[in-house]
From TrEMBL:
<dbReference type="InterPro" id="IPR036390">
    <property type="entry name" value="WH_DNA-bd_sf"/>
</dbReference>
<dbReference type="Pfam" id="PF12802">
    <property type="entry name" value="MarR_2"/>
</dbReference>
<feature type="domain" description="HTH marR-type">
    <location>
        <begin position="1"/>
        <end position="148"/>
    </location>
</feature>
<dbReference type="InterPro" id="IPR000835">
    <property type="entry name" value="HTH_MarR-typ"/>
</dbReference>
<protein>
    <submittedName>
        <fullName>MarR family winged helix-turn-helix transcriptional regulator</fullName>
    </submittedName>
</protein>
<dbReference type="InterPro" id="IPR039422">
    <property type="entry name" value="MarR/SlyA-like"/>
</dbReference>
<dbReference type="InterPro" id="IPR036388">
    <property type="entry name" value="WH-like_DNA-bd_sf"/>
</dbReference>
């Protein structure tokens, strides 16, 4: 049984198209700048930011995958690449033989410490500075609302 599609009206389509254009352009540009500035991919960066943001620089593999909203296989490939470059290491989980911790290495800490100042400056220049404090607050509330709504929707 096929229901009639709920096509987007003009305002809805304009909002959706604007969001997609902004998101694709911003993420693409930030990714290229990060790569040019530090040699680090956006995927490397997000993994290291999350690991180094913990008190001990480590996180359970599945927790990290959930936090960055990646499939297990994508996280596994990313961790393998980063391990080969010495940015992270795998550590066995003492209370779960099948579980593993992903740990930021000293090289991983150095990489994020070198990359973060320029990256945050680009984020500020391309995104934060485009909005007033009130607009930024509204934007944060709206994006949280959409994220919360998505959490309640089936895949």
């Amino acid at each position: 049984m096929n229901a009639t599609p709920r096509w987007l009206d003009t305002d809805e389509k304009a909002a959706w198209d604007s969001f997609i254009h902004m998101q694709e352009t911003l993420i693409g540009r930030l990714s290229r700048l990060l790569q040019a500035d530090s040699g680090m991919s956006a995927s490397d960066y997000i993994v290291l930011v999350n690991l180094t943001g913990t008190s001990d620089g480590k996180m359970r593999f599945l927790e990290l995958a959930r936090l960055v909203n990646w499939e297990k296989s994508r996280m596994s490939h990313q961790v393998t690449r980063m391990t080969k470059r010495g940015l992270v290491a795998r550590e066995e989980c003492p209370d779960d033989a099948r579980g593993a911790f992903i740990v930021a290495t000293p090289a991983g800490y150095k990489a994020i410490e070198d990359a973060a100042p320029l990256h945050v400056e680009h984020v500020r220049r391309l995104f934060i500075d485009a909005l007033t404090p009130n607009q930024l607050s509204t934007f944060a509330r709206l994006t949280k609302r959409v994220s919360d709504h998505m959490e309640k929707q089936p895949d």
